[in-house]
Design brief:
120 residues, mainly alpha, Non-ribosomal Peptide Synthetase Peptidyl Carrier Protein, Chain A, 47% helix, globular
């Protein structure tokens, strides 16, 4: 079974593609901030299928922790509320949202949509 990626062009026209694209931009900005802190061989490429965690991921536990901190700060700056990226079994190899940039972007969209819909 291959890794599923999100192609924003194939999503529904009600703004989902734009939200995914925005999440990807925020993730890529966090990566750009993190990469200078990492050894060359651990630096991440800003691509939807870039593995973040697991056997194909380049980040060690400290790298993942730093990415989470940077990303949560950027998400709070953008959306005005705290986002916890460590909930919902984020590191599950089968369906964790830190599998790759695509899965993380989809998860962020779901979190933001839920928060804006319910206010919690």
């Amino acid at each position: 079974m291959g890794v599923e990626t999100i192609d924003p062009a194939t999503l529904d026209p009600r703004g989902t593609a734009a939200k995914v694209e925005e999440a990807v931009k925020i993730i890529n900005a966090a990566i750009a901030e993190l990469n200078p802190q990492l050894p060359k061989e651990q630096q991440l490429q800003p691509s939807l299928d870039t593995a973040l965690f697991g056997s194909e991921g380049k980040l060690d536990s400290l790298g993942v922790a730093n990415l989470i901190v940077i990303l949560e700060q950027k998400l709070e700056e953008r959306y005005g509320f705290k986002v916890d990226l460590t909930q919902d079994d984020p590191f599950s190899l089968g369906n964790g949202h830190f599998r790759n940039i695509s899965s993380l972007a989809a998860y962020i969209c779901d979190l933001v949509q839920h928060r804006t819909r319910t206010g919690s």
